Amino acid sequence: MGRIHIDLFTTLDGVAQAPGGPEEDPSDGFQFGGWQAPLIDEVVGQQVQDGIASMDALLLGRKTYDIFAAYWPHQEGGTDDSIARRFNRVPKYVASRQTLHLEWPGSSLLGPNLAEAISELRERHDEVHVIGSLDFVQSLLEESLYDQLTLWVYPILLGRGKRVFEDGAIPTSLKLLEPVVVSPSGAIMQRYERLEGRPLTGDMSARD
């Protein structure tokens, strides 16, 4: 059975909107598009490459798909060659309620029933990565349709913007899979596995 991996860049206060550039997602008057760019470093770049090395499918929301489709097909042979080759060769699935013309080779629309579509992807692939796609991620969080969550947490506060755990996260237990790694820019990679069942509670006052 395949696994669904969510990969996100986020600020310390949980904002994950438009890390890559000013025009990525300016909705709701967001003024900090491209907040990650001044803080990117080789350690994070290598972590991203290592993380997708065994990826055999890419699952994206419509906005992120449009950004990726306009960029990655033209990056082979450049600085990000290994990432470009991986993205360009694996199947791409797009979550959208609209009928889209998908020009990036290997792209197809996800089925309308999200739970069924994810189940089909698990049967078809070993490791499916959801990168960015923050609006779509909210649905995956709400319905617990993911297995692993990787966050790169950057040492800045933005106060406003779309957050990783906006409204869709339900009470969930997670397991830290490996020690956290801090990059030179202060970004902390945290990789978690989703566990079944709700978080446990107790009474600290009952301890001796």
Structure report:
- The chain is of the alpha/beta class and 208 residues long.
- Helices cover 24% and strands 23% of the residues.
- It has a single domain, classed as Dihydrofolate Reductase, subunit A (3-Layer(aba) Sandwich), CATH 3.40.430.10.
- It has five helices and nine strands, in the order E-H-E-H-H-E-E-H-E-H-E-E-E-E.
- Strands 1, 2, 3, 4, 5, 6, 7, 8 and 9 form a nine-stranded mixed beta sheet that branches.
- The mean pLDDT is 92.
- Level-1 CATH class name: Alpha Beta
What is the strand tally?
9
Spans of at least 5 consecutive residues with low confidence:
none
- Mean pLDDT, nearest integer? 92
Element order, helices and strands? EHEHHEEHEHEEEE
CATH superfamily: Dihydrofolate Reductase, subunit A
Task: Compute the number of structural domains.
Answer: 1
Q: Any idea of the CATH topology?
A: Dihydrofolate Reductase, subunit A
Shape: globular
Derived from helix and strand composition plus strand pairing, the structural class reads alpha/beta
Helix content: 10-25%
CATH 2nd-level architecture: 3-Layer(aba) Sandwich
What's the tally of helices?
5
| Main beta sheet strand tally, sense and closure | 9 strands, mixed
Could you give the distance between the termini? 44 Å
Please state the CA-atom Rg, rounded to the nearest Å.
Answer: 17 Å
Range of strand content: 15-25%
Organism: Leucobacter viscericola
Domain Bacterial bifunctional deaminase-reductase C-terminal: 5-178
InterPro entries: DHFR-like_dom_sf, RibDG_C
Protein name: Deaminase
